[in-house]
Each structure stands twice: as C-alpha cells, then as structure tokens.
C-alpha cells in the first residue's frame, strides 16, 4: 500500500507541472528512488539530483528522504541538498517543491549560505534562536530577507529605500513574535507562511494534535479524525499581521479584508503555502459533499494532493470564527466570559441593533470548568493577569478548541448553547427550524453518500429504526424545517389500505369508512411503453413542470405492487402530453409482495419487469390519475407525517443499490440520480442519517474482503445477530466513565472494574435512543424496580423487551410487519451490550435486573440486531470466541443467545487502563531491550504516566495509554543475548561496564517532549548501539551505554573509555595519562536528542570529569562548560543519515585529537553543571558561525518556561 501510494504520487508528479527549475523527473534504479534535473534558467548547467526514500514502508506518513547530487555538482549545491530538512512525510511533489525553493534561493545567493526553503520557514526555528541570543540583530543578519529593511509600518507598506530598520518595524516584529511566542508557550505549534515579519500578506498557523484534546476514541471515529492528526487554524492576514487590538477596532467590512480564518486538519502541523492559499480559495462547487468525502477518490486531482482537509465541522467553524470572533473578543475585553460573550452576542443580534443592552450579570461569571477535559481546554489567555495586550492567534485558537472539542454543546448553525441535557457524540442543530433547514441545505451535515459507501448497513439500520418508529407513531421530532413537498395524504384510496394499516399500526384506528371524496387528482391516460401521460380534461395550463414528482395510480390496478407509481416529470413541452421517467414502484417489503421484492428498484435499465402480464396492457392508454408532490409536510397532522415518511422511504432503493450507483457514477452524488430518488425522499434520507447522534460502526459487513477489518472486534455468544460497535454520549463521556470506574475500583478494591449487561428496547424506540442517548425519562415498560436504565445479564430477558411493542411476526413468518420495504437487513429486534461500573450493590436494583441510575456508570459498547437479510451479500461472522478474550467478572458474565458472551480484549480499553494504573512498578528490570520497548512505544509519550497523578493520565487519550501499557504485540526485533565480556577478546582495558551510578550525576530533567517518529527512530538507534556493543570488544569500541539504565530515549548517558588505545607518535594520549593518574576510568557524557531528530543533531556534553578549557591549555573539542564543540554536532555539519554509532565514534576521536584534551586536575572529580554546558555550546557556535539547532533551548534546558506543552 505505501509503495503503491508512492508510485502513484511519483506518476502524478511526472504528469504534473513541476516546481520551478525542476524537469526530467524519472524513476530511479532502486525502489523508492527518483531522479530529476534542476537548472536555473540555463539548461546546460542542469544538475542531476537524486532522492531516495530508505524506508518506503513509511510512505506517505513518516518516511524521510535522502537527497544528493551527482559528483559534478558544485559543492555549495551538494551541501545545500544535504541540508534540506523537514522532508519527513512529504509527498514526492512536496519534496520537489522544497528542493526547488532551496536551489532557487541558492542561485540567487551564490555564497551558499543556504536557509531553509521559505515555505518551510517557521516560527519555531526563529523563536528558538531568538530565545537563545535574545538579540534581534543576530537573528536578522541570519536571514537575508531582513537585511534590506524592507518594511515600514504596521500596515505593511513596502519601502525599498531604507537600508536600516525603522523603530516601527522593530515594534511590529517584536509584537508579532511575542504574540506567536505566547501561542507556542500555551502549547500550540506555530507556523508562519509568507512574509509575516515583513508586514506583507502572510499566514499564521496554530495547531495541536487531536490526541491532546481529550476526545474519546469513539468521538474521533464519529468525527472522522485520528489522534495523530493536527487540528490546524489558519489565519490569513492579507494586509499584513494585525494585532488583537487592531482587529477589534475594525468594522465588519475592514475585518473581512484584513483577516481570513480557516479550520482544517492535517497530518503535518501546518500546511504548505500552496495548501494554505487553496484553503481560502476553495471553489464552492459541491461544497456539501467535499465535507465528508475528502477521503474518497475525487475527480479533481488537486483535492487528492492536499495534505490538509476540512474537518467534519470546518464549514460552521469557519463562519463562526470569521464572523463573530472579533466581536466576541470585544465583549470579552469588557470582562465577559466566553459563554457570557456568546450569550450577549445572540441577544444583541436577535434584537438587532446598536441599542445598548443591559448585560446580564451571569455573562460576567466565569465559565464552569469541566474536569474531564484536559488543561489546555480550560486555559484562557484573556484571564492572564498583568497583561495589557493579548495574542490574537492564541485567543483564536482557544476559541476554536472550545467550539471544536465541545461542538456537541452548540448548535452548528446559530452556535447557541444547546438548550438540552442530552449528550450526543455528534454535533447537531438546535430545535429551531431555520437551523435545521440551513444545516441541511448549507452543507453542514454529513454526506449521505459517504455514509452509504462506507457503512451501508448502518444506513439501513438508521432507516429501519426511523421507519419502525414512524409506523408506530413514536417519532418525537419530524423533519419540519426541510420544506419537504410530499405526496398529498391519501387515506381514501382503497388500494392503500394494506399498508395504510401498516403505517398506522398501534395508533388510534383510522376510519376507512370516511372515504367519500378521493383526493382530487388529474385524470390521464398512461402509455407504459412511451412513458407518456395525456390529460383527458386538458387544464388551462400544465399543472406540473419538469422535475416535479407525481404519484400515479392505475384505475385498473394490476397488482398491489402497482398500487402507486412515483415518477419524475421529464418533459412538458408537448402538453397536454407529458413525459415521465421510468416509474418507481413502492417497495412494500417481502411480506406484502409475492413477486421479487427487488424487481425494478433500479431505474437504470430493466425494461421488462415493468410490463404487466395483464390484458390491460393491450390498450395503449391506460386509465390513470395522478397527484403531485406538493403537500407541505410541516402543515400535516402527526399521523399523516408518519405516513408520509413511510411512503417516501418506501420509494427508496435498498442501500446496496444506492451504494452500487455511487460506485459507478462520478461524482458520487445522489442529487444526480434525479429519475430514481425524489428530492423529498433524498432530503428525508439526509435527515435520517444526519440527525443520528450516536456513533455506530459495522463489525459485520459484506461478504467480501474489504470488511474483514473489524473481525477482531467481534464477540461470541450472539449467533445470528449482526454486530455493530456502538457509542453514545458526549465526547468526554468515556473519560467520565473511566473516572467513575477507576474510583469504584479503588474504593471497592475490585479485581475487575466493570461488567457487561444487555439493554433492550422495542425497535420503535431506537430511533429516539440514538438521538437522545440512554436515559430513563420515558420508560415504556414500567419502573417496577426503580428509576434507571434497565439491564439484564441474559440476552433473552432483554430481547423480550426488545420485541415488545407488538410488531409481531410478519405474514410469511420471517419479516415482521412494519419493516422498511427496501431493507436489506430486515431487522426484528435490537439489543445493546453496555459496560457498567462493577458495583451492583450500589445500583438502584440489582435483582432481577441491574437498574442503573448513574448515567456516567454506563457506556454502550455494542449493538446487536437480529435480522433476516434479504440479500446474501450480508455476512454475519462466525460465532467463534475471540482469541484474546477480556477477563470478565466470573459471577457476572452476560449470556447471549448462543452461550456466554466472550468479548475481545482489544475492543474494551477500560479494564486494561485501570489494571495498569493499579499495577505496582516492578522492582526488577526486565531485559534492557524489553524495557526499551516498553518505554518507547510509538505514541507521543515516551514517558510513563505517573501512577499517582490522575490529572496527568486524563490528559492522555485512551489510545495513547493503551499503546503504552497495552498488550499490543511488541515490534519485531531480534534481541541478541547479552554476551559475557570475557568472551570478547580485545585489547585490555581498566574500564568495567555497569559501574556508573546515574543517581550521582547532575542530570538535566528528562525531556518531556516526543514525537512518535523520533521515538521510534531513537529506539532503533539505541538497539543498534546495544547490538554493536554486545558484539565488539570493550577497548576496541571505546564507548559504553548502560542500556538498562536509560530512562528516556531522548537522553542517553554514554561513557567513553579506553583512551589508552590511542597512540600519538608512539606516545600515550595525554588524556589517558591524566585519567590514569586521577583514577578516572571513563568520561561520562550526556547525549540529548531533540524531538525532530534525526533532522537536527543531538546535544552532547561531558558530565564528568572536568576538563581544562582551551585558554587553560585544554582541547579535545570540549569547551568551557563541558559541551562538545564539533561542527558535526551543529546544524551546519549534521547529516540526518549519520548513525549514532558513528557519531559516538567521531566524538571519541574528536576528544583524542589535537589540541589535546586535558583533565582539570584541580577540580578533582567534579562535574559540569547543565547551564554552563549549554551556554558554552551556544558561545562556541557563535564563535564558529555555526547554526544552533532549532529547539536547542528546549532540548538543553529542559521544558521551556511556562511549560505549556506538558505532553
Ligand atoms: Zn440553532
């Protein structure tokens, strides 16, 4: 797959317009290698450049590139190519872009003083330097862009005349940097695109990994984001950067032209410049569908190329931030809270106007804090004390988090706080009809096309639930806001009676006797072959127009199936003859029709099925009448609404047919299937799907390879039931549940923190359950055992409830009455398996049912439906027990329809998380390599979470914790058995490994940063060093790492020893002599890695013993403070392809080279402090003109002050 993606990207690039200067893009000799020519204007001077992806399997997420030129390339170009960084995870085309920018810039600047490509320049690099030097001049002289002093004022007019910077420019830059630094310190990644510091059109991006937002995995799944994605806020300043104060002062028109705001998600923490530009120029075409379909193949290639995509709620959020943020900030400056400002905003905007409104006191009260959300969600920059100016980017980002993470609390359209206690996992709109209308029509809702393609049976389920609920008249909300034009209700038509009864089942009986005046229709003749209608009594003008839908009824109805035909008007030009599309036959389900229920549901080609075998067909014009879809749905009675919903749903094809249509037609848009699905039915379908607020994921699926994915989540004990994973509740519900489970587990000292039990409900209730969540406000089946959600351990008990509601069994004994006719699943009951805190004694009742009143004690996990699939494509998995079963409380194991329920451990994280929190730390170290693996993981946190600190673990997502402590298979490595040193013969040495006591060393705090890719890479390096070490005689190697003692992959303690093996002109190395005299056996060094290793060098310093400085006659590349000063270890000399083994060897060589290192004998066995080392290093770099690696400060001094990014 990665390789295929790579090949596709390469081919795509080959057919594309290549970035400036680049041509002749060719596939290279090796897999993962490609070559191209670069020339700047003059083709004869073209340079051949080769790029290689060493780990093609990482493509396109975390791969790196090696880039090099041919032998004949000028040295400055070769060097510049070596120094190209930030290629990690870039597509082929993006890499070409980077190379192009780098080399173009180089040609303009032949000194070879390369800088990173402009589009990759970001604030982090700059701030690090700035923090280190605290001097603008050094920064400026480093960047040619600033040498010309091209800016003028805050408004950014360019003045090319001045050679020196004006004070206003300095102030502007200082403010910009300060604003961005505040955002970074608050825990966000900050990037700049364009010419922000010059005061021109620029983008500022802020981002944060989704994993840090405290969103449950279920919510991520429902929202279609992944933990490793970044949530990115792009701020565009078309006229140069503007401060918070400036923006608040603008009226709406000036605001529009001075700030643009977009929200997106991406694999990288910021988009490229091109992507940022594109984000603001997206063509409105297909706006609705680009929302949820961005991961589907799109005909427009530019969409596929982008590494950023809109999030599921980008559209509403873009509008919210763009239109309201500045005003809200103005209110906030007056002392209101976010909620207060929002409330005041809607008050002011609803009363219209400039009338000074009295602001209610509550608007000034602080927002309540939800402890289940991570700290970063509560941070409020405007509450920072002692500030007079505030960072707009930071405020915007904090506001975005509020509305992204807590999106389910707000109406997606009017953004008012939802006036409801209901908790849902997906955002929706408030009760306002206007909001519903806009939600559906402005493209805010999910794409039904995506849902049907991805999860057809979930859609089937949703429609079936709705249908059943409508049949039973149990719907509580109707799609009133959608302006549906539906067929007129027609209780008079005798033909309708069979399903008239179905529709009205269980409600007040309708009197069929009242049939006196049939709904007025138009009498026509119908020619089946030509699909023409002719008006018998010609009305004055044609009552229908092209695109209208009509309900056609034969006077001599042939079969029940033909009771009514729904069709679209195709042509009215030849009125009184009109042409219609091929009619859609109501699909009344298997129990009502003797013929194939699926005949003629596909309006594309089958012409024969429609021909009736009756004599009526012999006459050309059959007698018929029709009514138009012109009834305003909203004004209908409740029972007519239910009836209309069923009727419209009966016109729909089954989900597999829709899926097939969408696969075959591009763009995959049901709006285009005009002759098969009426606008009313489509709107209704959209409503059914978009108003679902639970997360339901198919476990069982189609009988083909693509659905094998979820097999590991299948549980056993429920044979013949289709399984779905099922999550409900707010995004922080999982965390609250976990907290409750953890508390009870500790309080009751439980061995198993949770139990599982069934919750059943009649089918007609499920439509509301998945919208409102589990609650016990309206319980149908009595409250004999108290108020709460009822659970049973035995599935048959709950399915008793599930089949209540009197739907009974259908005529043919298999399909129950009231089943949606086109359903593929044809479900007869539904049952949820819930996870509950294991404290039955504290339930409202525990016998015979578990009645649980604490909603935070319950999490839905699975949904089971018993069904009679109408098609054999549906595959219900085998009822084989999962291999890795979850340990359940033996006395409380739920019973399914086919035995005890066995739950796969992988599907439930709660137990594992709580158990691991409780597990005491092992007193013994496991094998070093094993420990390493346990430490490392591939997630963001290499640092084990503090067992005692609840708040810390809350900050990690379940997936992170799961990966850290989980039982996932360990990455494959061949740990070599540690050989005994005695067996490795080599030169003698006095060094004995394993003697060093780390606790005596003055160490810097462990790094708190990490990225999964770097952690993985460092683990590899450490393992590789460990293997080399095991296989090489001590004195030959000269360095030693006590792998078992390394706590954190980003901080290595290395001992260099056996310096006596060096001979300089027949003499011993002075250092070896000194060491022998002092009884020093090794030089202890700290090697510290930055989070973007290997793209920046490690920081290396001597901890002990102390050496003489250069001016004291010392040397060995060890500067005052103990830092190693070698070009290799600076950005200038570093190469990302160096292995740590070779780096260690070179460091040892550097210490042994001239001028020779000498021990400071007067210092005895003293150690260097951490601060002096870093200072010495920066000074040395300055002296040599070497570039200090970005992120050095964080790396060398530990967490940056203010320490926003704790994880
Ligand atoms: Zn609303």
UniProtKB/TrEMBL annotation:
Residues 107-143, 597-617, 877-898, 939-980 are annotated as: Disordered. GO terms for molecular function: NAD+ poly-ADP-ribosyltransferase activity; nucleotidyltransferase activity. Keywords: Glycosyltransferase, NAD, Nucleotidyltransferase, Transferase. Residues 969-980 have a biased composition (Pro residues). Residues 110-139 have a biased composition (Acidic residues). It comes from the Eukaryota. Residues 597-611 have a biased composition (Polar residues). Residues 1013-1197 form the UBC core domain. InterPro entries: ARTD_PARP (IPR051838), Poly(ADP-ribose)pol_cat_dom (IPR012317), UBC (IPR000608), UBQ-conjugating_enzyme/RWD (IPR016135). Pfam families: PARP (PF00644). This is UBC core domain-containing protein. It comes from Saxophila tyrrhenica.
């Amino acid at each position: 797959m990665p390789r295929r993606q790579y090949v596709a990207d390469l081919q795509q690039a080959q057919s594309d317009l290549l970035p400036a200067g680049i041509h002749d893009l060719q596939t290279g000799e090796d897999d993962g290698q490609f070559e191209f020519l670069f020339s700047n204007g003059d083709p004869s001077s073209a340079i051949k450049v080769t790029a290689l992806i060493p780990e093609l399997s990482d493509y396109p997420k975390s791969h790196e590139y090696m880039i090099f030129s041919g032998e004949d390339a000028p040295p400055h170009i070769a060097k510049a190519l070596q120094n190209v960084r930030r290629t990690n995870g870039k597509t082929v085309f993006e890499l070409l872009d980077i190379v192009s920018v780098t080399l173009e810039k180089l040609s303009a600047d032949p000194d070879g003083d390369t800088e990173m490509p402009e589009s990759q320049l970001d604030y982090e690099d700059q701030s690090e330097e700035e923090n280190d030097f605290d001097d603008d001049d050094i920064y400026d002289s480093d960047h040619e862009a600033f040498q010309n002093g091209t800016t003028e004022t805050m408004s950014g007019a360019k003045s090319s005349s001045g050679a020196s910077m004006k004070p206003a420019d300095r102030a502007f830059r200082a403010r910009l940097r300060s604003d961005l630094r505040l955002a970074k310190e608050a825990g966000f990644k900050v990037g700049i695109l364009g010419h922000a510091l010059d005061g021109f059109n620029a983008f500022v991006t802020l981002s944060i990994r989704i994993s840090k937002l405290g969103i449950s995995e279920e919510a991520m799944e429902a929202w279609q984001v992944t933990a490793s994605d970044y949530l990115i806020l792009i701020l565009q300043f078309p006229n140069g950067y503007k401060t918070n104060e400036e923006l608040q002062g603008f009226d709406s028109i000036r605001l529009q032209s001075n700030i643009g705001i977009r929200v997106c998600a991406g694999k990288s923490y910021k988009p490229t410049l091109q992507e940022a530009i594109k984000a603001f120029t997206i063509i409105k075409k297909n706006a609705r569908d680009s929302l949820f379909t961005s991961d589907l193949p799109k005909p427009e290639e530019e969409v596929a190329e982008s590494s950023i995509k809109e999030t599921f709620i980008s559209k509403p959020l873009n509008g919210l931030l763009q239109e309201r943020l500045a005003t809200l900030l103005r209110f906030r400056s007056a002392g209101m809270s976010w909620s207060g400002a929002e409330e005041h905003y809607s008050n002011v905007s609803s009363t219209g106007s400039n009338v000074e409104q009295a602001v209610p006191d509550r608007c000034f009260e602080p927002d309540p804090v939800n402890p289940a959300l991570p700290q970063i969600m509560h941070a409020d920059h405007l509450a920072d004390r002692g500030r007079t100016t505030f960072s707009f980017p930071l405020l915007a980002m904090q506001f975005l988090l509020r509305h992204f993470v807590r999106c389910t609390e707000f109406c997606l359209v009017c953004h008012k706080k939802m006036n409801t206690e209901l908790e849902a996992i997906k955002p929706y709109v408030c009760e306002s009809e206007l909001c519903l209308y806009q939600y559906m029509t402005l493209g805010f809702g999910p794409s039904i096309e995506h849902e049907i393609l991805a999860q057809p049976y979930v859609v089937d389920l949703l429609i079936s639930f709705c249908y059943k609920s409508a049949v039973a008249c149990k719907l509580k909300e109707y799609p009133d806001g959608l302006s549906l034009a539906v067929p007129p209700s027609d209780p008079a038509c005798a033909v309708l009676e069979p399903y008239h009864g179905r529709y009205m089942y269980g409600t007040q009986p309708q009197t069929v006797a009242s049939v006196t005046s049939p709904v007025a229709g138009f009498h026509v003749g119908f020619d089946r072959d030509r699909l023409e209608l002719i008006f018998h009594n010609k009305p004055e003008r044609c009552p229908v127009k092209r695109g209208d839908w009509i309900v056609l009824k034969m006077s001599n109805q042939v079969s029940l199936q033909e009771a009514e035909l729904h069709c679209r008007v195709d042509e009215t030009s030849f009125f009184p003859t009109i042409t219609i599309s091929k009619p859609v036959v109501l699909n009344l389900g298997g129990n009502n029709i003797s013929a194939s229920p699926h005949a003629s549901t596909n309006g594309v080609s089958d012409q024969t099925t429609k021909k009736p075998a009756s004599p009526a067909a012999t006459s050309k014009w059959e007698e018929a009448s029709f009514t138009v879809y012109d009834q305003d749905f909203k004004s209908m009675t409740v029972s007519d609404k239910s009836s209309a919903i069923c009727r419209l749903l009966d016109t729909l094809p089954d989900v597999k047919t829709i899926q097939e249509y969408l696969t075959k037609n591009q763009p995959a848009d049901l709006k285009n299937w005009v002759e098969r699905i009426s606008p009313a039915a489509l709107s209704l379908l959209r409503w059914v799907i978009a108003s679902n607020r639970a997360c339901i994921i198919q476990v069982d699926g189609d009988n083909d390879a693509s659905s094998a994915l979820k097999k590991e989540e299948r549980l056993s004990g429920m044979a013949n039931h289709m399984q779905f994973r099922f999550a409900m509740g707010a995004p922080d519900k999982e965390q609250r549940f976990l907290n409750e489970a953890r508390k009870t587990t500790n309080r009751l000292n439980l061995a198993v923190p949770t139990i599982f039990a069934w919750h059943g409900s009649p089918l007609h209730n499920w439509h509301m359950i998945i919208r409102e969540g589990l609650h016990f406000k309206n319980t149908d089946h009595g409250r004999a055992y108290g108020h709460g959600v009822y659970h049973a351990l035995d599935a048959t008990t709950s399915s008793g409830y599930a089949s209540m509601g009197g739907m009974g069994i259908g005529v043919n004994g298999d399909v129950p009455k009231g089943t949606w006719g086109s359903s593929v699943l044809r479900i007869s009951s539904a049952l949820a398996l819930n996870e509950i805190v294991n404290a039955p004694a504290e339930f409202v009742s525990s016998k015979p049912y578990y009645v649980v009143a604490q909603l935070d004690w319950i999490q839905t996990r699975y949904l089971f439906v018993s069904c009679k699939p109408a098609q054999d494509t549906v595959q219900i998995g085998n009822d084989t027990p999962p291999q890795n079963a979850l340990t359940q409380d033996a006395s409380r194991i739920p019973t399914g329809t086919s035995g005890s329920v066995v739950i796969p451990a992988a599907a439930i994280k709660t137990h594992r998380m709580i158990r691991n929190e409780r597990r005491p730390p092992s007193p013994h170290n496991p094998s070093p390599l094993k420990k390493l693996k346990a430490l490392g993981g591939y997630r963001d946190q290499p640092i084990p979470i503090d067992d005692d600190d609840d708040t810390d673990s809350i900050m990690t997502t379940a997936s992170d914790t799961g990966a850290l402590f989980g039982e996932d298979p360990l990455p494959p490595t061949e740990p070599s058995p540690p050989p005994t040193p005695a067996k490795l013969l080599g030169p003698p040495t006095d060094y004995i490994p394993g003697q060093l006591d780390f606790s005596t060393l003055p160490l810097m705090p462990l790094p708190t940063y990490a990225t999964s890719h770097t952690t993985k890479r460092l683990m590899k390096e450490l393992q590789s060093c460990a293997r080399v070490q095991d296989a090489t005689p001590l004195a030959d190697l000269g360095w030693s790492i006590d792998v078992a003692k390394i706590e954190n992959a980003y901080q290595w303690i290395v001992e260099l020893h056996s310096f006596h093996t060096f001979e300089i002109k027949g003499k011993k190395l002075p250092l070896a002599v000194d060491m022998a005299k002092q009884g020093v056996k090794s030089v202890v060094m700290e090697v510290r890695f930055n989070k973007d290793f290997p793209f920046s060098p490690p920081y290396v310093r001597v901890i002990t013993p102390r050496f003489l400085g250069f001016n004291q006659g010392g040397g060995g590349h060890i500067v005052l403070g103990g830092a190693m000063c070698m070009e290799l270890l600076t950005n200038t000399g570093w190469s990302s392809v160096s292995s740590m083994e070779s780096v260690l060897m070179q460091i040892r060589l550097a210490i042994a080279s001239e001028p020779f290192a000498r021990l400071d004998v007067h210092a005895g066995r003293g150690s260097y402090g951490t601060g002096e080392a870093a200072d010495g290093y920066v000074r040395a770099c300055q002296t040599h003109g070497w570039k200090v690696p970005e992120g050095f400060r964080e790396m060398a001094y530990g967490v940056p002050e203010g320490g926003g990014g704790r994880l």
